[in-house]
Protein 1
Amino acid sequence: MANDTICALATPAGGAIGIIRISGSLAINITDSIFRPANVCRKKDGNESTTAGHLKKARTQTIHYGTITDSEGNIIDDVLVALFRAPHSYTGEDSTEISCHGSRYILNKVLQLLIDAGCRQAQPGEYTQRAFLNGKMDLSQAEAVADLIAATNSATHRIAIGQLRGNISTELSQLRDRLLKMTSLIELELDFSDHEELEFADRTELLSLANTISQHINNLTSTFASGHAIKQGIPVAIVGKTNVGKSTLLNLLVGEDKAIVSNIHGTTRDVIEDTTDINGVTFRFVDTAGLRTTDDEIERIGIERTYRKLNDATIVLWIVDSIPSHEECRDIISRCHNKKLIVVNNKTDITDITTQLSKLFYCITQSYITDSNEENRTYLSSNYNTEITDTKTKTTIPSSDIEIIGISAATGNNTETLRNTIYRLADIPAIHENDVILTSARHYNSLILAHKSIIRVIDGLNLGLSGDLLSEDLRICIEHLAEITGNQINTNEVLANIFKHFCIGK
């Protein structure tokens, strides 16, 4: 099957332009059989000269203008044919790409002509699979192709481009080299254990190498939290009482009427979710049911879902339009452990914003001071590093993870400040060209398992375990890393490394 010549539509049908991709050993010959170049010479009798072999004779990475014709000589469409000879193609095989007009009829007709000429319809992902099998990319780069196609903002695009260019592969290659060295040293120790006069590496060197590998893996796994959040969208929960403007704010932030807005209490009974980009990063905003005491069973279920979404959020927008009670402050703050909380004072178009924010500040201050829950007090006093002093009470409250902002969702006043604050509190790392940021749960899980294996090696070295036991854990570590790229370390590589770096004599 891998030797078959395949064809498939590479673009959606119905657009201005459609591209059909052909790959395999007969790709050029089959395309040549249905293609007629535009610069066809005429013989003296007025008949066209043969066009057979035009593409066969063409150089790689060239483009040819002409027509696609059926077996009866009928013109199907004017086309451009791009030609790539192995290994200088996406798949590493002989390949062509036919650019036609995007008519469904034209594209289906050209595909049928290719199939009749000897092509097979490609399976989903088969072009990238062939690229992997032919050594054009590893598994992590193959996955990056899908991520690049699915990229919805500049951050995910930069991460996908970096992965496609081999940033992850390079990092894992360094790990692979260290593991190969360590494996070779242990194999030498086992092979020459009867020669007490020979010492290739003491346990101190092996331990140092293992610790370096462990730290390297830790550095990679530490990027997953940010990478996964960027890829999936950073969750932001919008919570508050009924009729404080949550739905109005959601609609404003996402730029469309996503949620129904009315003066009737309890209008929003289920979570409503949508995304928007802020400074090139996707945020998932979740409008929730209003928090209040109610006998309505459906509304109560909605409130329960509100608390679940609050737990899942990275950032919480607590919307208020009046001064909340100390109990309300303590309840929200206690539910926002390890989250960023923005207290949004809405409806500033109809209230005295200066007075309102001052009162709100005082309320939250007092909630810190009077919190009866020892765990909350301990958390609140120890997990924030920036303090603001209330001049009235001469007390301080931590504020690095809590912001108080006055806005008007109805008029849009100060909402840009809110957007910037949301982005700042998300703490998105700067993404540069060569940065490695994990976004794949598969990669993360493989690295976690690899790390557990190298920790066992470290523990074994500290306990003085024999090389054969250490070697087994090293093998498992290598296998987990190989799951990411598909590149295993085989016996021949170990032997080659031994002879290259460690063999005695010649």
Protein 2
Amino acid sequence: MTNITRRIAANPSYKWWVYSSVGAAAFITVSDQTGTTLALPRIAHELNADIPTVQWMYLIYTLFISALLLPMGRLSDMLGRRRIYTTGLVVFTCGAALAYFAGQLPLLLTAKAIQGVGVAMIQANGMALMAEAFPKKQRGTALGLYMAGIGTGAVSGPVISGIMIDAWGWRSLYLFITLVGVAEIVLSTCVIRDLVSSRDRMGNSNGLKSFDWVGAILSAGTLVLFLLSMTYGHRLGWSHHLVLMGFSFAALFLAGFIVRELKSQDSMIDLTLFKVPVFSLGIAARFLAFISGSPVYFLMPFYVIQVLGVSASRAAFFMLPAPIMMIITSPLSGRFSDKVGTKWPSVTGLCLWSTALIVFTRLEIDSNPAIVSVGMLLLGAGNGIFSSPNTAAVMTVAGDKHYGVVAALVNMVRTSGNLTGIAIGTTILVTTMTSMGFEPSLSSLMETNGAGIRTLESIELMGSFVKGLHLVFILGVCFSTCAAVFTTFRPELQQHPPATEPK
């Protein structure tokens, strides 16, 4: 590092300025996601579109993020994190401004795609910037604070979005995001610096000429095909020729990506990292954990509102313990893992995660909604306690020069795990309801109001839904238990040296 960057890195306040920027970016991106979900019915009505169509706003947003995370992480390692991060904020903010002015759904979908590109650039660097700004002995603390920022957005984002949408319409959400985005661009431009000099950046000898464009296309193609196949598998049927073709081509793209990365001198990601048990088992545990947890956040609102008959506003109250516990436990777990190691805090978090899913298997059509809050509290605590040390372990193994691409990989695994878990959970639920003679659609449950008079048919319908939930959560316990086993049997972090430098 140059003398200037050394002084910046040594300044005790610099890490907190970085956190102010990264935390604000995490907050605004999460608020955008939750706000868009709340706004979908209004958008569908105003733009004369049905719900399945407007749901592409979420799907296209997620696909762009997942597909571009790894390439953007690699680019940040090559060109500098500040450049890619601030550019991502600009792209994201421009997408929000376009969404504000969008008068037709195609233009709105384009805006969400642009935002997805920006979020990929932001998320590929947020963790990396935090890891660079904080000393190695405080890395767990830094990543815990990052997760707390996400939790804060998850708590306050729906509240703020709901108030704005009710008062001024769905466009006000994107106006708010645009204004905050502009402020965030100014803040980040002023405070963030590249602490790794250009000559020390990974693979920057020939600039963009050394970027693995083929590897980027293959990795993006793999994720897009896989996630689309998982998303539409339960809708079209897992034996449908389009679904099978999607999985087949995803496998071919993955094989091509692996071969390309092994042979390339400027690989997208150093695959030798997976030879280190801490890294490979940490990534596997993360993927399984988010597969197990994502169906809860997707399906629980249907249960609370349509089965228990709780209003939407009260339903949000019963779901709040999860993000609140993430805010509390993430920094504490990160700080604790800095002192005792990353392994056993991760195992503890996964045990709480599994306990929460076991609680959810006890739900019935007339359960007390407080049970949902207990389960969400345990799930949020488990998520917060697990995520920070797990991420710290994976990123520390990778080494300083790989922070960007590995941070991108960590976020990509989370996103892919979430979509995979939702697809699997929905499939199990729909299959269960179908086998019991009910319409294989979640929308059929919307016809039943749990607060009204329950007929025998409505009780049986609710019973089929709850039985499907039980099976989903039982499978989730299996996934989270496997994640805990993987973590238990991996070595502690300091027992292994970092992986070899890229070719």
Protein 3
Amino acid sequence: MFESKKIGIVLSYINTILSMVFGIILSSYLIKAIGDTEYGLYQTVTAFANYLLILELGTGTITQRNVVICSQKDDKKGIDKTISTMWLITIILALVILAISIGFYCSLGCLYQNTMTLVQIGYAKKIFFFFMGNLLLSFLTQTLNGYALGVKKFSFAQIAKLIKVVMRTITIIGITVFYKHSIVIAAVDFFLSFVIFLLTFHFCRKKCAMHIHVGLFDKSIIVESLPLCLALLLQSVIQQANNSVDKVIIGARLTVESVAVYSVAQYIYSIFVSVMIAPVTMYLPQVAKDLNRSLDRHRFTDTLIQPTRLITLISGIILFGFIGVGKQFIIVFYGIEKVQAWVYALILIIPLFLSMTNGVVNNILDITKKRLVRSLVLFGVTLVNILLTWIWVNQFGVIGAVIATAITMFVGQVIILNIYYNIAINIEIIRLYWNAYSRTIPIFVVCAAIAYIVSEFFPSALLGMLAGGGVYVVLVAFLLYKFSLNNTEKRIVSQCMSKMKRK
């Protein structure tokens, strides 16, 4: 079991890296192959349809949790009741989503009548049709994956994701060579989701001994899971609003071409998020252990300094590297006409960076069952973001949406939540930030500035990116090791280097 879990963790990191690489390759190819209009059309429709994701209600998470509990008790009947109940609930949710999506389908023409032609609206409806099919299949697959993870089959879901990432990229590129239309993306996603669903269902039946029967439905499972379900619902609402609201409003009030530019910036932002999640979650067990010990405010803050510094180092290297050579990166992969996406991405990422440095603190909320306060704060901030975006897009264009998101993110996640952390969890937030930033940010700023200057010397964006990136990596590695890393961190680096040499 331990080896299976370890393999699953390794595969999850491989998935993250490959998703980033293939995602950059595919998005840059599609913008050039099918054009801003088609790519923007796809992004606009999917952003609109993504709001239906909030109705998923965490069925996969709840299934995994309950199956794990039953497995620990060796309760096979309880496992069968769980998957039978959650499977029926998932099907009911799928039917509800299907009914709502019909209304959404009919409203597309009214929503985008001022920004799309009749032909584009027709294509948008076809994309929406395929996307909804993909969404329904994904819901069913998530519940099955929750069951597989609950019975300690950690690798299958990651392998399935790997296959989907690779096949999606190859298939879309192969078809769009001959048929340059955004419908291809939606159709391929639907087909692959159908294949993955069939494979997952077969795996759970044959390899995980899954048994589903209507007679095993147990409403007590629903009642017991309701608090978690509501928390996940609120979290999903916030996440989808933050991920999609800008594109929906831009598509409705500007043009689909504007959505294409914004989508590039948001994709860079999503890469930053995915990379930052790993070091945050890695420290969760240690934080939980420290919470159970009687530590005063000062000593408990001390236990958070090291993981916070690590997160700052990892995120800072990526962020300031993008500041230094991100302009050339955008030009190389997406074209010079998308260069403003570099500025948009930076405006979105900087407040995220400031909030991610206290990512370990966020985990404490889950451990201490104080998640609701954070969710309510973020929900309120999200409503303000929607209002400001709606007003500012009309006045300032795409940059209005970007600034609205950045400001509300900074106010909510950096200012309000840090004040809450200081009061509710009794953490010395200012000392935490000082230890994380004082000996790292100046180095990052200097290295990013030098990298930017070097990259601008070259007439070719590719050469500028490579030269500036190379200078940045060498400088930041040397200066951090010389002036920033403490003895513990230097020892970790030395141990890693020794292991690499032996291998």
Protein 4
Amino acid sequence: MKYRFFTLKQAENALRLAEKNVAPRIDEVFRPTRLEQMIFEDAGGDAENKALIELFHLLYASEHRPTEADLRFSAANCRAAVVNMLQNQPEYGELRRFCAGNDFVAMETAKMLVQTVSEIEKHLMDALGKLPMVLSRLYEKQNRLHEKVQSTLAKVQNDSTELPEILHSAEQLASVAEQIGVVRTMLSDTLRKQLSQEETALQTAAQESLETARTVAYASACWGSESGNGTEKAQQNQELLCKLKENDYLRDITRQLGRMKEVLSALRKNGYAHGRGEKFSLTRGRDLRNLLSGELALLASPATMPLFLRRYNAKGLTQYAKREKIRKGGGDVIVCLDESGSTCGENAAWGKALALAVQDICAHEGREFALIHFSGKDEVRTDRFLPGKFTAEELLAAAEHFFDGGTDFETPLHEALRLMDEEAFENADILFITDGYCDISDSLAEKLQNGVSDARCSVIGLLMDEDTAGNTFSLGKFCEKTFRVSQFDHRDIEQKLLDAFMPD
């Protein structure tokens, strides 16, 4: 459109229009802080990879800069458009839950996403063609005209000879501003059309990255080490990931154990008991530390002191009830875990994860834990985990171990009795996990029952019998209670067993 201006008011309006029509930021989507940049580099990130930096920031940072409002311009910024689409995926909330504040998880997830995001970005750039370049040149021209009009506007007040020139420049400025609007509309339409074609690819990438984030987060929670600096940790984490990629058994254990640890974390957060801590109600008693001031005031007068004494003797004084996180102990635990060839697969991973979840309970409660791996006759290995005296590497070694032999119950039960007699596990409860039938002698059953009775502990059986639900097994000889997978869902058994070993 050809503009014709005749007054300074029209020139001033053109200036204001150009000032609102600000050029978009096309170099970056987010601006990480210097600290976030250092964390990115310590985590093994490539400082030259702009897309990787921004995806890491998107997943890791608690605050994004620029804000979401600053991204609305992004017709010319393909990466911003892709990022916006990623944030609208249903998996994004879960991605943030695993990645936010965790550099290891955020980096591996960003690496998973960056290839797809870069490919989509390239497709968008190809679809836009020369439009971004045209828009950029229009903005440059607008900036020059804006500066010219603004610099000469003040002169016109004193020198009317400048009026024709400034009006001509203002006409050009208004025309360029209109062209910018047209080009931006074309960019937006083209971008929207191309994005709709790329959405399936981004959806798939978001789903795969969520699985990556979950696996890496669980690996970090289960086997991650807190020792070493940022570079050393990054190297250790990479070695751990390589091990998980090469070992399907360990990867399955990690996923199961990570999920169980989330359950345990929720149980701990929700566990409260009355005692020292937060005031939450009123009750009756005679705890002088928690009495209401009105009750204590009865001691101030000889006339009311007898009333105080009567209430005190009857435990009838009004006092605060308080609550705190439960601090309750429990006995040590021995887990006998069947690692015969018949358990290979899902059962082996689930049983190992459950055993290590019980170990986690013991570690938090200051209780000793022993894991007896067993298979055929004389195939036995015992891993002891004393509170605060084991490493993540030792846990990982226990997780990786698998005999893949026959089945013999007597060897692990003799080992459990030995631990109870010789290794200060006299009060230990026993969890016996197996999938198969195997008999034990009456003498061993009696010895075990006597040992358990003397120690006042219990033996719980877990029978992974999905494929043999109709069979009768011999766990009844020495187990007080047996959970059968054929009768209960895996999640139900997890809940029941974890509750059983949590402190009362």
